Amino acid sequence: MRAELWLLVLVLREAARGLSPQPGAGQDAGRGSGGAVQGTTVQGWNRRAREIPGQVSEPDRTQLSQDLGGGTLAIDTLPDNGTRVVEDNHSYYVSRLYGPSEPRSRELWVDVAKANQSQVKVHRILSNTHRQASRVVLSFDFPFYGHRLRQITIATGGFIFMGDVVHRMLTATQYVAPLMANFNPGRSDNSTVAYFDNGTVFVVQWDHVYLQDREDRGSFTFQAALHQDGRIVFGYKEIPMPVLEISSSQHPVKAGLSDAFMILNPSPDIPESRRRTIFEYHRVELDPSKVTSASAVEFTPLPTCLQHRSCDTCMSSDLIFNCSWCHVLQRCSSGFDRYRQEWLSYGCAQEAEGGTCEDFQDEDSSSSSPDSSFSPFDGDLTTTSSSVFVDSLTTEGLQNNLSPKTKGPPLHLGTIVGIVLAVLLLAAIILAGIYINGHPTSNTALFFIERRPRRWPAMKFRSHLNHSTYTEVEPSGHEKEGFVEAEQC
């Protein structure tokens, strides 16, 4: 009887041992999934670690987690205090975040101090002011959301404005922001805003910059690199405090990418003018809690409809976007990009409904079509040149691309006579002004002095104390070559 009881105890012990999990297995799995989805709401997708075929997962290895549904980025802490490389798909970009212990983080950092100093520019005004922005022309065409840009605007607040129309609310959209915050480079002599361009990569570095009224928390050093192939890299060298603790009451605090398109609508106040309205069609937001020292984020661009140059490749595209071909513009688009105003103005949305490439081929091939580089904005940009900045090279190229039909009829004799009279009238006014200035006691001068207005009109400006407004500075004559890495005390 005793032997039978002993045998029953042994059988139950072996059964219990077979049912119990391996030590640490459940703990590691719970940490991997729970930490990855923290702060994100993605329905139907679970973040999982990518396993490389033929390799065995080891406790001291870093792992790659992937979330095909998009969302914010996260660094997952492993039991050995390692980090995961987190990958997210954002439709337009695939982002990979590398933790402090990843070798890739150090590889992505561009050491501006060791670069060719003839290619490094320290912007003197941006390095000594607060809430200022300056335009810079790139040496190459940078593809941003499928649009090729040659001009960007660097801001002191830790971001790059990528829009064509420069306005005061640059923080709203169309930005590349490694860390947008209320930085004031003018608070310290060691703070600089520099950029480096070697023809294949353009790097903007905010070096030892301090937060406005938070200098006691330490200096920040980070950079944004725009590569010629469209990749965008955020490098973080020194982040002295948690980003979540940075106040956003006076300035937005965010990190990521954004793009928008602009629509012109009739203004209800002025009948003959049109109002610009900016619509943001895509944004990538990084989790601020994961922006730490010695980390990096790499954005790899995904194919868009704009890359297709023919109707066949456009209509047969297997992209996630609903690509359609506009025969009038000779462009492939989803209708949601910076060319949306053209897409609507030329009726491309109606043309794409039920149309096939064979239908377009049957049309008269000799019919004229507008140039793809022409934008409906161009007709109004000249009337609002104070708020729109156009590169001279782009303007010359646009004029050369216009067809002879758009040059207008030749000038008639009456037009020439009118121009000559206008020039003579202007010369007479200038000469009269010179005479009055040289003879202040003459009858003519006294005549105008007696009839001058007693009170000159004054322009009133509203103060935006609670808004992060930026003022553009002139880029020419305010830069110096060389980059000196300041030592941190």
From TrEMBL:
Comp. bias (Gly residues): 27-37
Membrane topology of the entry: Single-pass type I membrane protein
Keywords from the UniProt entry: Glycoprotein, Membrane, Signal, Transmembrane, Transmembrane helix
Residue ranges of the TM segments: 411-436
Secretion signal span: 1-18
Subcellular location: Membrane
Biased composition (Low complexity): 366-378
Region (Disordered), start-end ranges: 19-72, 358-380
Family: Belongs to the plexin family.
Protein name as catalogued: Plexin domain-containing protein 1 isoform X3
Lineage: Eukaryota, Metazoa, Chordata, Craniata, Vertebrata
